[in-house]
Amino acid sequence: MEMNEFYDAIMQMHGAEEFKNLIKKWDRLSSNISKIPADLPILLPDVILEASSGSGVTYLLQKLADYLSEKENLISFYGDYKFFEFVLGYSPEGQPFGEIDRFNECVSLAAGFRNEFRGIIRIDIDEYMGRQDEKYFRSFLEHLASNSEKWLIILTYAGGNEKDIKAMDVTIRSYMRVEKIRLEMPSSEEFTEYLEEVFVKYGLCVTEDGKELLEETVEKLRENKSFDGFKTVRLLGIGIVYELLSGDGDFSECLTADKLRPFSAESEYIGKFILNLAKPHQIGFSGGTK
Predict the structure, then answer these.
(1) What percent of the chain has pLDDT over 90?
(2) Which of 101, 158, 175, 189 has the most CB atoms lying inside 10 A of its own CB?
(3) Whole-angstrom Cα distance, residue 102 to residue 82?
(4) b/e per residue, 96-113, with b = 16+ CB within 10 A?
(5) How many angstroms separate the CA atoms of 38 and 42, rounded?
(6) How far apart are CA 222 and CA 238, in angstroms?
(7) What is the CA radius of gyration of the chain?
(8) Going by C-beta distance under 8 Å and a sequence separation of 6 or more, which residues neighbour residue 100?
(9) Nearest Cα to 49, choosing from 36, 59, 40, 39?
(10) Mean per-residue pLDDT of the chain
C-alpha cells in the first residue's frame, strides 16, 4: 500500500483512533480504485464527527486536507482553500432563514476567482441538536446533499443526550451517505507529549521536572472554554520558544522546571496567553489550508 508523509503524520497523532481507522479505510480505497472502470467514480461518504470542544477538530481537518490532496484520486480540490469551517446559526421556524445564502457566500469566498469550490467543509451543527426535525435544518441538509459530488462534508457536534444524538444521526442519514466517528478529548499528558514534540523540532529537550510543570500549565489552559486542543498547545510551544530565544538570560537546549518557571500555570505569561485565547464564537467563514 502506497503511503505518504501525511498518512504517517495522521497515524502518529495522539488518540483519534476512530479517525485513524477511517483514514486506513480510505487509504485501502485509494489503492484499489484503479481496479474499477475509470468512468465509475467512487464518492467518499460524508462524515458525522462527534467531538467535544478542545479536541482539536481544526488540527484534524488540516491533516485530512493534506492527506487527501496528496492522494489525488479520492477527492478533488479547487478554489482558494482546501477546507473551511462554518457554524450553522439557529433560526426559529416562522422567522427568515438566511443560513443557506450565508453559507453560499462562504463557499464563494473559498472559491475565490475560480468561481467554484471543491474540497472539505466542516459545519458545526450544535445549534440544531434536539431541533433536527425542524424544516430549516432539513432544508439545509437538502442543500448539502445536492452538492455532495463537489464537497466532502464534515458535520460536527459536541454531543448531547443519547436520544438527541440518535435522532440527529437518523435525520442526517436520511439525506446523506455518512460515516460517523468520535474524537475524544486527549488527556493533559497527551497534550504535554505533543508540546514536547514541538520543542524537539526546535532542537530542545525537556527534563522530567520540566514536563511536570508543563502538564500543570496545560491543565490550566484546558479549564478555559476557548481552549482549542492541539492548535492551542502548538501556539503555546511556539510562543515559549520565542520567549526563550529572545530572552536576556542564558539559553539552554534542555528545558528544566526552573527554565520553564515563567510559563507555569500561575505565571503572568499564561495569564496573558489565556486572555488572548478568548475569541468571539465564529458564525461565519473560517478559512482553512490554502
Answers:
(1) 68
(2) 175
(3) 19
(4) ebebeeebeebbebbbee
(5) 10
(6) 18
(7) 21
(8) 139, 140, 143
(9) 59
(10) 89
Q: Looking at residue 87, what DSSP letter applies?
A: E
- All cell numbers assigned to 191: 497534550
Q: Does pLDDT of 287 surpass 70?
A: no
Look up residue 269 and give its amino acid: Y
Say what the pLDDT of residue 86 is. Answer: 96
Query: For 203, which DSSP code?
Result: T
165 CB-side CA count, 13 A = 14
* CA separation for the pair 48, 182 (Å, rounded): 8
Question: What does 133-194 look like in DSSP terms, one character per residue?
Answer: TSHHHHHHHHHHHTTTTTEEEEEEE----HHHHHHHHHHHHTTS-EEEEEEPPPPHHHHHHH
Let me know: does 84 contact 115? Beta carbons within 8 Å: no
In this structure, the number of other CB atoms found within 10 A of the CB of residue 92 comes to 9
3-state secondary structure (DSSP) of residue 48: strand
- pLDDT, tens digit, 9 for 90 and up, residues 78-106: 999 999 999 999 999 999 999 999 999 99
Q: Give the N- to C-terminal CA distance of the chain in Å, as an integer.
A: 28
DSSP state of 103: H
Q: What are phi and psi of 181, to 5 degrees?
A: -135, 160
Banded pLDDT at 286 (limits 50, 70, 90): low
What is the arithmetic mean of pLDDT over 114-126?
94
- Cell 431541533 locates to 131
User: Mean pLDDT, to the nearest integer, of 48-62?
Assistant: 85
